[in-house]
Amino acid sequence: MRENINISNDIKFGCEIEFNSPYNIKEINNQKNKMNSEFKIEYDSCISNIKEAISPILTVEKINELKQCLELINMYKGYIKGNEGAHIHFDNSIVSKENFSTMLKMWYLSEPVIYEFSKCDCDKLRKDYHTYAHELGNTLKSLIKCYDNRAIGIGYFRTFHKNNGLNLYNYVTNNCIKNTLEVRTPNGTLNYEIWLNNIEFFASLFMYCNNIENKELIEYLFKKDEFLNSDELSNMIFNNDESKYYFNKQLNGEYGKEKKMNLY
User: Fold this and answer.
1) Which residues does 70 contact at the CB level (< 8 Å), separation at least 6?
2) CA of 52: how far to CAs of 40, 49, 172, 245, in Å?
3) What percent of the chain has pLDDT over 70?
4) Chain centroid, CA 135 distance in Å
5) N or C: which end of the chain has fewer CB within 10 A?
6) pLDDT (mean) for 229-252
7) DSSP-derived 3-state class of residue 245
8) What is the pLDDT of residues 86-123, one digit of tens each?
9) How much is the pTM?
10) Burial class (CB in 10 A: 0-12, 13-18, 19+), 17
11) Environment class of 156 (CB within 10 Å of its CB; exposed 0-12, middle 13-18, buried 19+)
C-alpha cells in the first residue's frame, strides 16, 4: 500500500471528497470532532443528496489527515455510486503567472491521458462528467493562440469554471481567499492510494511547466499539435520509477480490477 508521494512539501493543496453514506451528516461530524479532524463534512453544493468532505490546507507532511478522513468515511459505510468527483485544489503558486500559457499548453497536450487516468478505479468516466468536468479540447487550443497573440487577456479564462475539468476562475481572478487552481477531472473514490496518485500526478504536471527548458519543449510540441501518449507524459513529469509505477497502475485500470475482486 502506498503511503507517500514524491512532491515537495512546499506544495499546498486541498481535497474535496464526494461520497454517499446511510448515516447523516451530524453523526459523521460527531465522530470527526472526536478525532480532532479539521475536515468539513457537509452536503455537496452541486449534486443533490451527496455528501462532501472538504480538507484544510494540506502538504506532504499533513497527508495523513486525508487518510484519516477516508477511514472515517469508510467507518460510516461510505460508498461511491458513480456520479461523484474527487477534486483537488492547488495553491496558485504551483504555476507562476508568467508560465500560465505554458501550463495551458501542457494541459491541452496531456488531456486525453488526463481523462483516461481520471477514471481512477472505474472503467469509464463518471456519469455527467460533461456537466461537471468537461474537456477543454479545441476551445482551449484556440484561446491559447488568442492569448499568446494578446487578442485576449488572462481574465477571459474565468469562463473555465466549475463545469470544466480545469477550473481557472480563482487562479485568473487572484481571489485572495480561494487562490487555487482546481482539478475536477477525477472520478470519486475512497481509495487513499488513488488520492495519492492523483495529487502527485497533477502536482507534477503543473510543476513541470515552471522550468524554462521544459517550457521550450512544450512550445515545440504545441506547435506540432500532437497529443502526448502516456509514456511520453510520465517520462516528462516524473523523475523516479515509483511515481511511474503508480501512474501506470491507475492508467491501466488495475485498481478497477482490484475493486471488482473486493481487494479493497
Assistant:
1) 17, 190, 191, 192, 195
2) 8, 10, 26, 30
3) 97
4) 14
5) N
6) 97
7) helix
8) 999 999 999 999 999 999 999 999 999 999 999 999 99
9) 0.95
10) buried
11) middle
